[in-house]
Amino acid sequence: MMKMRYGIVWVALLAMATAAGRAEDVVGQEIAPWQPGMLDIHQISTGRGNSALHVFPDGTTLLVDAGELGQKTPRHTPDRPDGTRPAGEWIARYIRHALRNDPKPSLDYALATHFHDDHMGNASDVLYMSKSGAYKLSGLTRVGDEFRIGKMIDRGWPDYKYPEPVKVGFMENYRAFLKWQAENNGMEVQRFAPGRSDQVVLCRDPKRYPNFEFRNIGVDGEIWTGVGTETRNHFPPLEGVPRADWPHENMCGTSFRLSYGKFDYFNGADIPGVPAEGYPEWHDVETPVAMAVGPVEAAVVDHHGYIDSQNAFLIGVLRPRVWIISVWDAGHPTQRVWQRLQSRRLYPGPREVFATDVHEATRVVIGGIDKLASDRGHIVLRVSPGGGEYRVVIVDDASESHRVTKIFGPYPSR
Question: How far apart (Å, rounded) are the C-alpha atoms in residues 226 and 388?
Fold first, then answer.
């Protein structure tokens, strides 16, 4: 009898705790923890690069990038919360809090969108070594040193030779990290496979959420057509192409669409859409990507809103209600990009633009930047169970209070 009463009390307490955890976020209070059925996308603000934690409806976790610029200049935004810890450590601490209800938090997947330090980490000589002594800790390698990563995905594995051998400073350290983690922690490493929807999947309770999909769109110029898993090569064969016209690192980066019910989300990393004067038209990667993606509810602004990104076609096709800009530089975004994001000629209807941390110089130079819905803080997309509606929750990035500063929505998914 005592066991039965104890069991009834325990179930009641558990139900109360669950109900409390699903309560609405409240301005001034700590952001509520993720709950089953929700899709959370956290754009983490560090002032040193891109990083986004995704928590899928069944609790599957995905980290997209963990950037850490090596040196700061006056054109860069301040470190967030401050400069007492490296960015990779701040990201790891943020992840640990976001997954605080998981007794053994881990990352089921990690995706390195492309090989730049503001998305992966730097190669400074003063970096700390991992306890294993096999690699240095910066950005992605620091986060991967604190959380087990089940599957690591990037654009170049295993040979890293397109369009030529990748020899940027951080790559040697990154490859040492992959080797040690694969041999000692069982981490699987794969090349991002465009067109597929089975490389990143729900891995904890997939049958419960059949309306969830992670679709690989493009990488290295190979782009999904929108039909089955069929792809086509957007870049021409490099034989005969002048070396100065070969695709650069940003052009080769990954792009993906995440869908949950009626909710769709796009991330194109740093792909360009406005070729520099005199360069080939195929340097525009955004247009063929947008043709495959279609309309979405929310999108990350490509290349931080820099001068070569967010062409009119992409904006008009995606036409999201929510734009997110990951900012770490005074040129994020540039004037023409800001104007295109605001243009009702490109698509009608309301839209809100959220930025992690706008530089003071940007406020002076760009007219109308005060129309940002939010210009400071971690940006959390919270999609309700089933994907029918979503909110944007802004979280304080000046401390580790995880305090909600603003809430927008709910917005209906189309």
Answer: 23
